Amino acid sequence: MPEQVSVLFVCLGNICRSPTAEGVFQQLASQQGIADNLRIDSCGTGNWHIGKAPDARSTEAAGRRGIDISGLRARQINVDDLDRFDYVLVMDRENLADVRDLWHQNGGTEPRLFLEFGDSGQAEVPDPYYGGEDGFERVLDLIHDASTGLLDDIRRRLA
Fold first, then answer.
1. Which residue of the set 16, 17, 57, 75 is catalytic?
2. In a domain, 159, yes or no
3. H-type helices in 68-132, by residue range?
4. Where does the pLDDT of residue 159 fall: very low under 50, low under 70, confident under 90, or very high at 90 and above?
5. Domain around 72
6. Those residues with Cβ within 8 angstroms of residue 71's Cβ, 6 or more apart along the chain or in another chain
7. Could you give phi then psi for residue 32, rounded to 5 degrees?
8. CATH of the domain at 91
9. How far is C-alpha 126 from the geometric centre of its chain's CA atoms?
10. Known catalytic residue at 16
11. Exposed, middle or buried by CB within 10 Å (0-12, 13-18, 19+), for 64?
12. 36 part of the active site
């Protein structure tokens, strides 16, 4: 039985969806008493936001739900991540294709669409970057739903 399970959330720039997923998932894991059994991180497939804080709109939307993601900083995925994480969960099919390219070349943990763990009926977390405030709220709803399913999966893994 593993003592710790590691989860990596991946989006395009690591400033909207994946840091939101990291924050939501961390909060839910803490509320359910299993945060000590988890290592949670996020990253992007692109390199243009490395070192930057999450988008202010993501930070504000998460903050309205009591989740502080302001201290997170963007980073780009690297090949070692596929060996270091038990779950590599991507936000959309484009991210999936990019991360699968790394996986096919190097092996490790096979990436999956994050929303496979949810009940929303959607396959992808839409990128809210070019949209309005409602998009950031929708992202939070989708991420919360999938995070609940992911925690159930991890509890089975830890049992």
1. 17
2. no
3. 81-84, 93-106
4. confident
5. 5-153
6. 53
7. -95, 5
8. 3.40.50.2300
9. 13
10. no
11. exposed
12. no
